[in-house]
Amino acid sequence: MQIYLPIAEVSVNAFLLLGLGGMVGVLSGMFGVGGGFLMTPLLFFIGIPPAVAVATEANQIVASSFSGVLAHLKRKTVDLRMGTVLLIGGLIGAALGVQVFNILRGMGQVDLLVKLCYVVFLGIIGSLMFVESLRAIRRSKVPGAVPVRRRHNWVHALPLKVKFRTSGLYISVIPPMLVGVFVGVLAAIMGVGGGFIMVPAMIYLLGMPTKVVIGTSLFQIIFVTAFTTLLHATTNFTVDMPLAVLLLVGGVVGAQVGAQIGTKLKAEQLRILLAMLVLAVCAKLGLDLLLRPSELYSIGGIGGHG
């Protein structure tokens, strides 16, 4: 069943979009990521212009993350105080990111920038997570192995300390605030919730327990991506509503399924699966940038909406 997307100016199969939304929703519930890092490139692959994919995908992330957070709130695995600190940073970052996006869009460089950002970040994050997860799995297989206690790092020496009871932490608010700003910028430029960067940062940099990280990450993602969508819709007019609705319906259903699957897998298994997914998407995007396109010249249909 083909459906015409007015802002993207292309026709796409509606069931394909529902399926993609559902698949990414499952990942959202399982891993605590908004799923945008996977969905936005998938939208590129089916012919949606990058500027529209970025702005519209932020919409779908809000819905699937909200659905996932409800499941985690029931289990009391959301650190609301930590989520609020990350959120303040995220809103500042999103406002900065939309400004950068608008400048680059005016220069006609936004499509290339978005794709390059994906290849670089997915490559780095995927590799780091994969190596760390392998180490964790090896450690868990050694009989009588003692789990490695987190040593105090430079984060614990910083001022402005606050007690985060749900996470069992007493650390400075500066690192989570900076993580939030960075993730907010990425949310605006790449159309991602930023979970694929925030989840590793919360585990390895802040030392939060994995079971609390997923729900807290989703809590912050909801508000930052909602704010980003609003800014894109009002300044760029690149939010395609029919596309957003189809992805949204699939995403909400998928997130509930994902939250259930996530409880049945070990933390190390979840992380290694996520790492493999990140690397696969990175490889496909990298190849697309290197190989000659099938059409050497394409008409920039999206430039006329500015």
UniProtKB/TrEMBL annotation:
The keyword Cell membrane applies. The chain crosses the membrane at residues 12-31, 80-100, 112-131, 173-206, 212-231, 243-263, 269-287. It is a multi-pass membrane protein. Pfam families: TauE (PF01925). One of its GO terms (cellular component) is plasma membrane. Keywords: Cell membrane, Membrane, Transmembrane, Transmembrane helix. The keyword Iron-sulfur does not apply. It is found in: Cell membrane; Membrane. InterPro entries: TM_pro_TauE-like, TSUP/Inactive_protease-like. It comes from the Bacteria. Belongs to the 4-toluene sulfonate uptake permease (TSUP) (TC 2.A.102) family. This is Probable membrane transporter protein.
